[in-house]
Amino acid sequence: MLRFSAMAPIQPLIDHDELAARVTSLAQEIRADFPNGPIHFVCVLKGAFLFLSDLVRSMEGQVTIDFMAMSSYAGRATSSGEVRLVKDLDAGLEGRDVVIVEDIVDTGLTLHYLQEILLARGPRTLKTACLLSKPSRRQINVQVDYIGFTIEDRFVVGYGLDYAEQYRNLPYIGVLESIT
Ligand code: IMP
Ligand code: MG
Question: Three-state DSSP class for 109?
Fold first, then answer.
Protein backbone atom coordinates (compact mmCIF):
# COMPACT_ATOMS: atom_id res chain seq x y z
CA MET A 1 0.00 0.00 0.00
CA LEU A 2 1.28 3.43 -0.98
CA ARG A 3 1.48 6.12 1.66
CA PHE A 4 2.03 9.82 1.20
CA SER A 5 3.18 12.59 3.47
CA ALA A 6 0.86 15.46 4.46
CA MET A 7 2.78 17.60 1.97
CA ALA A 8 1.92 15.65 -1.20
CA PRO A 9 1.28 18.04 -4.12
CA ILE A 10 -2.31 19.10 -4.78
CA GLN A 11 -3.53 20.20 -8.19
CA PRO A 12 -6.43 22.68 -7.80
CA LEU A 13 -9.61 21.44 -9.49
CA ILE A 14 -12.60 23.44 -8.19
CA ASP A 15 -11.90 26.76 -6.51
CA HIS A 16 -13.69 28.34 -3.58
CA ASP A 17 -15.83 30.70 -5.70
CA GLU A 18 -17.02 27.90 -7.98
CA LEU A 19 -17.91 25.80 -4.94
CA ALA A 20 -19.81 28.67 -3.33
CA ALA A 21 -21.77 29.45 -6.49
CA ARG A 22 -22.70 25.82 -7.16
CA VAL A 23 -23.71 25.11 -3.56
CA THR A 24 -25.94 28.20 -3.55
CA SER A 25 -27.70 27.06 -6.71
CA LEU A 26 -28.09 23.52 -5.34
CA ALA A 27 -29.75 24.99 -2.24
CA GLN A 28 -32.23 26.84 -4.46
CA GLU A 29 -32.86 23.69 -6.51
CA ILE A 30 -33.57 21.65 -3.39
CA ARG A 31 -35.80 24.32 -1.87
CA ALA A 32 -37.77 24.56 -5.13
CA ASP A 33 -38.64 20.85 -4.77
CA PHE A 34 -39.96 21.39 -1.22
CA PRO A 35 -41.41 24.90 -1.39
CA ASN A 36 -43.59 24.77 1.68
CA GLY A 37 -42.15 22.46 4.24
CA PRO A 38 -39.25 21.72 6.50
CA ILE A 39 -36.36 19.79 4.98
CA HIS A 40 -34.46 17.32 7.13
CA PHE A 41 -30.82 17.02 6.07
CA VAL A 42 -28.85 13.89 6.91
CA CYS A 43 -25.16 14.73 6.68
CA VAL A 44 -22.78 11.83 6.10
CA LEU A 45 -19.72 12.42 8.27
CA LYS A 46 -17.07 13.44 7.99
CA GLY A 47 -16.60 14.38 4.35
CA ALA A 48 -19.86 16.28 3.87
CA PHE A 49 -19.61 18.59 6.87
CA LEU A 50 -18.51 21.71 4.95
CA PHE A 51 -20.90 21.03 2.06
CA LEU A 52 -23.77 20.72 4.57
CA SER A 53 -22.80 23.88 6.41
CA ASP A 54 -22.67 25.97 3.23
CA LEU A 55 -25.81 24.33 1.82
CA VAL A 56 -27.99 25.07 4.83
CA ARG A 57 -26.66 28.62 5.12
CA SER A 58 -27.79 29.32 1.54
CA MET A 59 -31.19 27.85 2.20
CA GLU A 60 -34.40 29.68 3.00
CA GLY A 61 -37.21 28.25 5.10
CA GLN A 62 -37.26 25.57 7.77
CA VAL A 63 -34.35 23.18 7.93
CA THR A 64 -33.27 20.55 10.44
CA ILE A 65 -30.04 18.58 10.41
CA ASP A 66 -28.76 15.26 11.71
CA PHE A 67 -25.51 13.36 11.27
CA MET A 68 -24.45 9.82 10.60
CA ALA A 69 -21.16 8.13 9.81
CA MET A 70 -20.27 5.14 7.68
CA SER A 71 -17.06 3.17 7.74
CA SER A 72 -14.26 5.01 5.96
CA TYR A 73 -11.38 3.95 3.77
CA ALA A 74 -9.10 4.26 6.82
CA GLY A 75 -6.17 5.57 4.86
CA ARG A 76 -6.72 3.55 1.72
CA ALA A 77 -7.39 5.29 -1.58
CA THR A 78 -9.72 2.65 -2.99
CA SER A 79 -12.93 1.24 -1.63
CA SER A 80 -12.98 -2.21 -0.12
CA GLY A 81 -16.66 -2.38 -1.01
CA GLU A 82 -17.36 -3.04 2.64
CA VAL A 83 -19.73 -0.54 4.25
CA ARG A 84 -20.55 -0.24 7.94
CA LEU A 85 -22.72 2.14 9.98
CA VAL A 86 -20.45 3.77 12.56
CA LYS A 87 -22.69 6.52 14.00
CA ASP A 88 -26.47 6.50 13.71
CA LEU A 89 -28.89 9.42 13.55
CA ASP A 90 -30.28 11.01 16.70
CA ALA A 91 -33.85 11.29 15.39
CA GLY A 92 -36.30 9.18 13.37
CA LEU A 93 -37.25 9.94 9.77
CA GLU A 94 -40.89 8.90 9.66
CA GLY A 95 -43.03 11.20 7.53
CA ARG A 96 -40.21 13.66 6.90
CA ASP A 97 -38.80 15.08 3.69
CA VAL A 98 -35.23 13.88 3.98
CA VAL A 99 -32.20 14.84 1.91
CA ILE A 100 -29.00 12.84 2.33
CA VAL A 101 -25.94 15.09 2.03
CA GLU A 102 -22.81 13.24 0.82
CA ASP A 103 -19.41 14.49 -0.26
CA ILE A 104 -18.84 12.19 -3.23
CA VAL A 105 -20.37 9.21 -4.97
CA ASP A 106 -17.72 6.93 -6.34
CA THR A 107 -18.62 3.22 -6.70
CA GLY A 108 -22.04 4.06 -5.22
CA LEU A 109 -21.85 1.25 -2.67
CA THR A 110 -21.88 3.53 0.38
CA LEU A 111 -24.80 5.58 -0.85
CA HIS A 112 -26.80 2.57 -1.97
CA TYR A 113 -26.48 1.01 1.46
CA LEU A 114 -27.38 4.28 3.17
CA GLN A 115 -30.46 4.84 1.02
CA GLU A 116 -31.71 1.33 1.82
CA ILE A 117 -31.43 1.72 5.56
CA LEU A 118 -32.93 5.21 5.58
CA LEU A 119 -35.84 4.25 3.32
CA ALA A 120 -36.72 1.50 5.79
CA ARG A 121 -37.30 4.23 8.40
CA GLY A 122 -40.34 5.55 6.50
CA PRO A 123 -39.47 9.07 5.34
CA ARG A 124 -42.16 10.81 3.25
CA THR A 125 -39.51 11.46 0.60
CA LEU A 126 -35.83 10.56 0.43
CA LYS A 127 -33.53 12.45 -1.91
CA THR A 128 -29.76 12.62 -2.17
CA ALA A 129 -27.41 15.54 -2.72
CA CYS A 130 -23.76 14.80 -3.57
CA LEU A 131 -21.20 17.53 -4.01
CA LEU A 132 -19.17 15.38 -6.41
CA SER A 133 -19.81 12.39 -8.65
CA LYS A 134 -17.35 10.10 -10.45
CA PRO A 135 -19.71 8.28 -12.83
CA SER A 136 -16.93 6.27 -14.49
CA ARG A 137 -16.33 4.43 -11.18
CA ARG A 138 -19.90 3.36 -10.52
CA GLN A 139 -20.42 -0.30 -9.56
CA ILE A 140 -24.08 0.04 -8.70
CA ASN A 141 -26.79 2.18 -10.24
CA VAL A 142 -27.65 4.56 -7.44
CA GLN A 143 -30.08 7.50 -7.63
CA VAL A 144 -28.51 10.91 -6.96
CA ASP A 145 -31.01 13.76 -7.23
CA TYR A 146 -28.68 16.72 -6.85
CA ILE A 147 -25.06 16.69 -8.05
CA GLY A 148 -22.68 19.59 -7.57
CA PHE A 149 -19.94 18.61 -10.02
CA THR A 150 -19.23 15.57 -12.17
CA ILE A 151 -15.52 14.76 -12.16
CA GLU A 152 -13.12 12.31 -13.77
CA ASP A 153 -11.63 9.34 -11.97
CA ARG A 154 -9.09 11.26 -9.88
CA PHE A 155 -8.63 11.12 -6.11
CA VAL A 156 -9.74 14.49 -4.76
CA VAL A 157 -9.33 16.17 -1.38
CA GLY A 158 -10.35 19.40 0.34
CA TYR A 159 -13.64 21.11 1.28
CA GLY A 160 -14.30 18.26 3.71
CA LEU A 161 -12.81 15.39 1.70
CA ASP A 162 -9.75 13.67 3.08
CA TYR A 163 -6.94 11.35 2.36
CA ALA A 164 -6.02 9.56 5.61
CA GLU A 165 -7.82 12.36 7.54
CA GLN A 166 -5.64 15.06 5.95
CA TYR A 167 -6.68 17.99 3.74
CA ARG A 168 -10.30 18.36 4.92
CA ASN A 169 -9.59 22.02 5.76
CA LEU A 170 -8.61 23.10 2.24
CA PRO A 171 -11.14 25.72 1.05
CA TYR A 172 -11.05 24.25 -2.49
CA ILE A 173 -11.16 20.81 -4.13
CA GLY A 174 -7.87 19.54 -5.49
CA VAL A 175 -6.45 16.37 -6.99
CA LEU A 176 -3.97 14.47 -4.87
CA GLU A 177 -1.66 13.70 -7.74
CA SER A 178 0.39 10.98 -6.12
CA ILE A 179 -2.56 8.60 -5.97
CA THR A 180 -4.25 9.17 -9.30
P1 IMP B 1 -18.28 4.72 -2.71
O2 IMP B 1 -18.96 3.82 -1.77
O3 IMP B 1 -17.22 4.04 -3.50
O4 IMP B 1 -19.25 5.50 -3.61
O5 IMP B 1 -17.44 5.74 -1.86
C6 IMP B 1 -17.98 6.83 -1.29
C7 IMP B 1 -17.05 7.35 -0.23
O8 IMP B 1 -15.67 7.11 -0.56
C9 IMP B 1 -17.19 8.84 -0.14
O10 IMP B 1 -18.18 9.20 0.77
C11 IMP B 1 -15.80 9.26 0.30
O12 IMP B 1 -15.72 9.20 1.70
C13 IMP B 1 -14.86 8.23 -0.27
N14 IMP B 1 -14.24 8.69 -1.52
C15 IMP B 1 -14.45 8.25 -2.78
N16 IMP B 1 -13.72 8.90 -3.67
C17 IMP B 1 -13.00 9.80 -2.99
C18 IMP B 1 -12.06 10.82 -3.37
O19 IMP B 1 -11.71 11.04 -4.54
N20 IMP B 1 -11.55 11.55 -2.35
C21 IMP B 1 -11.89 11.38 -1.04
N22 IMP B 1 -12.77 10.45 -0.65
C23 IMP B 1 -13.32 9.67 -1.61
MG1 MG C 1 -17.89 9.92 2.67
Answer: helix
